């Protein structure tokens, strides 16, 4: 009898262990709502000074690419995100479509007001609603995700001339596997990795989208894509995980992918294409745990560190994002009464960014409520500078060391 009891408890424990591990993981995500509430969240500012720049010129810059030799930061900013965000599942119908997303070049060494240049996009006649993007400097290839309202998601391929600051549209890349493209990591002049952050798209039904966001099953994917000479795309799923968001090649053999809804970053080893296959395979290498926020975009710094930006407090992010469609629009805010103005004043979003190295682990760079909704951080230690860009923020945070 005793033997039977031990055996059945063992079986029970074996069955329960994954469930307990799963629930502990969910708890680690949910606990951020408590520990990172305003007033309780620790504040960090590990730099000499910072400034929030261009607040009256740009907002909702989700992604940044640093070009260290040119001392330029490329930014993609979409004012339309207040009303249309496929990631957060926010769709305000029946409003005038906002101005298109824009790409900017910020010459970060220059103090003059012209340091921020809007890049002229030539030959793209459709709407542009951008989240993540990437740039392959040797071939001048710019890839912009586009979540336009009509016609389905795609990736715009452009050639960016950094002497004239014009980007010429070459083609729109679409493929059934590019279903909800979030972030891109270019590998060469014709190959890239792209994350599809959900399996269930909010626009097609909120319940499954919501459950996927909160239960974090490993159903979404990372896709490897190759642009063929014909302009068509050859795409293959190379990894499945929960909420693949930011993506960056840490070096030639390691790909880092954020798992936002799990509060993790997964590192994968990139193996060369097996004989007969046209795409590389990914092998799980290690997982970065213990981040004090839900990771969004990932960037590989010139010194090799993995820069991670994220969202420390989801309830505030949701409230902040929902309020922007009023707070970001002076013409609507003016007619919304004093209560609305006060609410805009009091609704705050949090940011938290840091860097990770295999030697030291995670180190904080900035956390606080003065600059909201950090989505990306870039840094050039050698130039003593860094930038944080916020999903729903006005301007960008630029720091100096
Ligand atoms: C790439 O980065 C990973 C993680 O930091 C490291 O373990 C690996 O040794 C690096 N590989 C190369 C070829 O530098
Ligand atoms: C601040 O940054 C410096 C340089 O990156 C680093 O050496 C130091 O450990 C950081 N301090 C904290 C408290 O993270």
Automatic annotation (TrEMBL):
Name of this protein: SMP-30/Gluconolactonase/LRE-like region domain-containing protein
Natural source organism: Stachybotrys chartarum (strain CBS 109288 / IBT 7711) (Toxic black mold)
InterPro entries: 6-blade_b-propeller_TolB-like, Serum_paraoxonase/arylesterase
Domain of life: Eukaryota
Species lineage: Eukaryota, Fungi, Dikarya, Ascomycota, Pezizomycotina
């Amino acid at each position: 009898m005793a033997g039977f009891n031990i055996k059945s408890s063992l079986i029970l424990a074996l069955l329960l262990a994954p469930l307990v591990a799963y629930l502990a993981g969910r708890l680690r995500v949910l606990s951020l709502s408590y520990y990172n509430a305003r007033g309780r969240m620790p504040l960090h500012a590990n730099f000499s000074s910072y400034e929030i720049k261009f607040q009256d010129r740009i907002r909702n810059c989700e992604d940044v690419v640093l070009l260290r030799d040119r001392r330029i930061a490329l930014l993609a900013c979409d004012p339309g995100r207040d009303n249309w965000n496929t990631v957060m599942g926010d769709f305000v119908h029946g409003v005038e479509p906002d101005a298109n997303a824009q790409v900017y070049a910020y010459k970060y060494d220059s103090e003059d007001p012209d340091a921020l240049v809007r890049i002229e996009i030539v030959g793209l006649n459709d709407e542009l609603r951008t989240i993540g993007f990437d740039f392959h400097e040797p071939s001048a290839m710019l890839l912009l995700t586009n979540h336009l309202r009509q016609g389905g998601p795609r990736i715009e391929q452009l050639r960016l001339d950094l002497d004239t600051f014009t980007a010429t549209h070459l083609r729109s890349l679409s493929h059934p596997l590019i279903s909800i493209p979030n972030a891109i990591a270019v590998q060469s002049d014709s190959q890239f990795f792209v994350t599809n952050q959900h399996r269930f798209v909010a626009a097609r039904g909120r319940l499954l989208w919501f459950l996927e966001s909160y239960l974090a099953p490993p159903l979404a994917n990372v896709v490897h894509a190759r642009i063929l000479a014909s302009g068509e795309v050859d795409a293959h799923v190379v990894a499945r995980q929960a909420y693949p968001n930011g993506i960056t090649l840490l070096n030639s053999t390691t790909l880092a992918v954020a798992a936002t809804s799990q509060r993790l970053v997964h590192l994968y080893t990139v193996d060369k294409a097996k004989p007969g296959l046209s795409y590389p395979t990914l092998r799980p290498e290690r997982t970065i745990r213990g981040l004090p926020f839900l990771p969004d975009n990932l960037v590989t710094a010139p010194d090799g560190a993995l820069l991670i930006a994220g969202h420390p407090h989801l309830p505030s992010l949701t409230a902040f994002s929902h309020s922007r469609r009023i707070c970001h629009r002076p013409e609507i805010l003016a007619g919304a009464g004093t209560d609305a103005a006060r609410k805009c004043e009091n609704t705050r979003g949090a940011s938290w960014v840091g860097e990770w190295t295999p030697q030291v682990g995670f180190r904080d760079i900035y956390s606080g409520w003065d600059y909201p909704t950090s989505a990306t951080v870039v840094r050039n230690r050698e130039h003593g500078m860094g930038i944080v860009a916020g999903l729903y923020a006005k301007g960008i945070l630029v720091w100096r060391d």
